[in-house]
Amino acid sequence: MAYNIVYKKSVQRDLKKVPKAEADRILNHIEQELSKNADAYPVLKGRFAGLRKYRINDYRVIYAIVGNDCLVLRVGYRKEVYKREI
Fold first, then answer.
1. Where are the beta strands (DSSP E) in 1-86?
2. Residue 17 lies inside a defined structural domain of this protein
3. CATH of the domain at 66
4. How many domains in the chain?
């Protein structure tokens, strides 16, 4: 099942903190891989219970599946992405 990718406004700010080449690569992965297989990636526990993560090397994409949409909530470096509230 193909999902529509929807970005939260804060994702734009998150991507500004990432080097340009990495940000482009992350966006390509999201548009190509995540849109096809969004339900195949792990569900988070604890404070982020019910959300999912997609791993791209040292970066993580935190997202939620809402109907036919994949709502991207946060993008960041693996050690920093879980520290702030969504």
1. 4-7, 52-56, 59-66, 69-77
2. yes
3. 3.30.2310.20
4. 1
Token couple for 66: 């809402």
Alpha-carbon distance of 39 to 44, in angstroms, equals 12
Other Cβ atoms closer than 10 A to 86: 13
Distance (Å, rounded) from C-alpha 19 to C-alpha 32? Answer: 20
d(CA 34, CA 41): 9
Would you say residue 23 lies in a domain? yes
Residue 13 placed within a domain: yes
pLDDT category at 69 given cuts 50, 70, 90 is very high
Report pTM: 0.94
Question: Residue 45: phi, psi to the nearest 5?
Answer: -120, 175
Contact of 44 with 53, CB cutoff 8 Å: yes
pLDDT given at position 28:
97
